[in-house]
Write a structure and sequence with these properties.
This protein is mainly α. The protein has helices spanning about 1-30, 35-40, 40-60, 65-70, 75-80, 80-95, 105-130, 135-150, 170-195, 200-220, 235-240, 255-275, 275-285, 290-295, 300-325, 335-345, 355-375, 380-405; strands at about 240-245, 255. The protein has a two-stranded antiparallel ribbon with strand order 1-2. The longest helix is centred in the first third of the chain and has 27 residues, at about 1-30. The radius of gyration is 23 Å and the shape is globular.
């Protein structure tokens, strides 16, 4: 138990050190004239300190054999966390080059931008957990955005999508948009489960169908493919409302998207870890033949996976329409690739059966922080794409290396 106790003490001690340093800097930065040099760094140190201390406090005890093994696998730890460590180094470099990056406002912007991406990634993770994928996810986001926005325009807007439509309750278009996505999710599931079609081909076909159907809907007169605007304030509030705005001087408030994403994270964590359906998802992804022998209804579970995933895409699309107060048929284009990449970076195995909600959250945040940070220091968008591609390649290589070891 000595090694385990040492590990617990290490996290707890590090947490206390960060916490103390943060508190000292918080009260000392004004007298020392450091306000414009370290901005909100003390607050971040306090948060990191609390997280480290909780990690040490909640660490599980291990047997002596497990503790000894953990000491021999330090290289494995570095391999498993290479992307995260690289991101931390990048964040430090960005903070040195541009100290304004160390602001609560910036952190809240990153979390806001991550929210809808996270909801979408949580949906696509179900398909990855069964060693599949879903290329139609981005187009479902666009479909939900267009359908919901088209019914949520103000009565006085000149170019209304439905001129004769009365002002309906805000929840009605949301439900209709999500149900529209779930119909296509069911089609995905049926093609994969009934005909054993590879998810790549099945969802690619459905992706094209969705885009065509959404474009036909978007081109209906009198809209005629014009961007949908004039969104009602009660609908836009779903993506633009800020909580605790003005809590203290300069505090920008917390976007409503952040708690919505957190609630969905908790629900998905519960489904994956505490329900029979969640256990079946991991079982099918780990070994489909063994799952069939164990009596799991693979057809029903695969249908459920794609329908649940499409529900989450629909929610993400509705929130995107509310956040931007508008929509076009090109919304969501390419989003599925970013979501898949974030899941892989977060530890979801492309070979199925492995992945956690916490890892997905980390993967989405890593991509958002890197993208936001590179924009913050004015790195060329072309270089941003190169860096993103390198991260994806490295993450997949690490995933395959871990799979071969097992």
């Amino acid at each position: 138990m000595a090694n385990t106790s040492k590990s617990k003490r290490l996290f707890t001690t590090a947490g206390i050190v960060f916490l103390a340093l943060g508190i000292i800097l918080y009260f000392a930065k004004a007298p020392l004239g450091l306000n414009r040099k370290i901005y909100d760094l003390p607050v971040f140190l306090i948060i990191i300190g609390v997280c480290f201390a909780l990690k040490g406090f909640m660490a599980k005890e291990k047997t002596e054999e497990e503790a000894a093994l953990s000491g021999k696998t330090f290289s494995e730890f570095l391999t498993n966390n290479a992307i995260l460590l690289a991101m931390l180094v990048l964040v430090v470099v960005i903070c040195i080059l541009q100290p304004r990056f160390m602001q609560i406002r910036v952190a809240l912007d990153i979390l806001t931008q991550s929210s809808t991406k996270l909801i979408m990634a949580l949906g696509i993770c179900f398909t990855l957990l069964i060693a599949g994928t879903d290329l139609s996810a981005g187009r479902m986001v666009g479909l939900a955005a267009v359908v919901s926005a088209s019914m949520m325009q103000t009565a006085t807007y000149a170019n209304r999508f439905f001129p004769e439509l009365p002002q309906v309750q805000v929840w009605m278009p949301i439900i209709i948009a999500i149900l529209a996505c779930m119909v296509f999710g069911a089609l995905n599931g049926f093609l994969v489960a009934k005909y054993d079609m590879h998810p790549f081909i099945a969802t690619l076909a459905v992706q094209v169908i969705i885009y065509g159907a959404c474009s036909l809907y978007f081109d209906m007169p009198p809209n005629n493919s014009q961007p949908i605007g004039g969104i009602r304030p009660d609908f836009a509030a779903l993506g633009q409302m800020r909580l605790f705005n003005g809590l203290y001087k300069g505090f920008p408030g917390i976007s409503i998207l952040i708690p919505i994403a957190l609630v969905i994270c908790v629900i998905i964590w519960f489904i994956l870890n505490k329900t029979v359906f969640g256990k079946n998802v991991y079982a099918i992804g780990g070994n489909r033949e063994a799952a069939v022998v164990a009596g799991i209804n693979v057809f029903r579970n695969i249908m459920g996976i794609f329908i649940l995933a499409s529900c989450l895409y629909g929610i993400a699309g509705v929130l995107e329409a509310a956040r931007t107060a508008g929509a076009t048929n090109n919304y969501g284009n390419g989003y599925e690739l970013d979501a898949i990449a974030a899941c892989v970076v977060g530890g979801v195995s492309l070979n199925g059966g492995i992945g956690k909600v916490g890892g997905i959250i980390m993967g989405v945040l890593i991509f958002t922080i890197i993208q936001y940070g590179l924009q913050f220091i004015n790195v060329s968008p072309m270089w941003q794409q190169v860096i993103k591609g390198v991260i994806i390649a490295v993450a997949v290589a690490i995933d395959l290396t871990k799979y071969r070891r097992k």
